[in-house]
Structures are given as C-alpha cells and as structure tokens.
Write a structure and sequence with these properties.
With 148 residues, the chain is α+β, with helices and mostly antiparallel strands. It is 48% helix and 26% strand. Strands 1-3-4-2 form a four-stranded mixed beta sheet.
Amino acid sequence: MIELIIIMALLLIGYVVGTHLEKSHYHSIKERETELNNIPAIASKVLPAEFDTCETTLVAGNVVISVDYFKKFVAGLRIIVGGRVSTFETLIDRARREAILRMKEEARQLGADYVFNIKMETSSISKGQKNAIGSVEVLAYGTAIIRK
C-alpha cells in the first residue's frame, strides 16, 4: 500500500511541476513571438524580384525538449484505449515554436528582414526502455534575407 501512495505522490508532483514549467515556457514563447513578429518566416522557395540584390545566409534554430514522466504515464494509458495523445501534442508544439524563435533570433542578430524557405526536422532522441521517447529535437532552418 505504501508503494502505491509513493507512486501516486510522485505522479502528482510530476504533474504539478511539469504543468508549471510548461506554462512558464509557453509564456516565454508568446512574449518572444510578439517581439520577433517583425521578421516573417516564409516557407516559399521563390524569392520576390525585389530581393535579387540582397545578401543571403543560412540561419537555424535547434531545441531539445524532454518528456516528463507524467506525460509518459498519461500517454501510456492513452495508447491502451486509443485516440489523440494530447500530452505529446503540447510537447511538439512547444519544441516547434521554440526552434522557429531561435532561428528568428539568429536572423535578427545578422540584421535580416525575412527568413525564406524555412524547413523543420523533428526527431526523437535519448530513447529509454523499449525505445520509449525520452526527448524530442526540432531543427528549424531557412535563408535569411539581409537588405544592403
């Protein structure tokens, strides 16, 4: 019985701490998205003619976000009954948005006005037992356009 109480207490602590950290990260993301909103990230491969005389350079943003044990536990339960694994959806959303922000921050440091042809790569890393996902990596990259 004591083992069950310990497990439930650890799950509760994991939930509370994980929720707080996730909300803090989302708050940070929203603030920086507002700040970097003036640098559009455009998926188009074709540069408008007005950018023919501009300097271009590769910019990238990379992030690794770990999956907490509470999310793993809830996802394990969801796998049994089927359906959306919403606990992982927020993880992927945070990672994607953070990677784009880091790419835009690099573009801003270079004095870029736009980032064209953005692409994203996603992978799971630090797999644990039974190849369970431990962390998610997202890489966002594109071509920064610097007007002269």
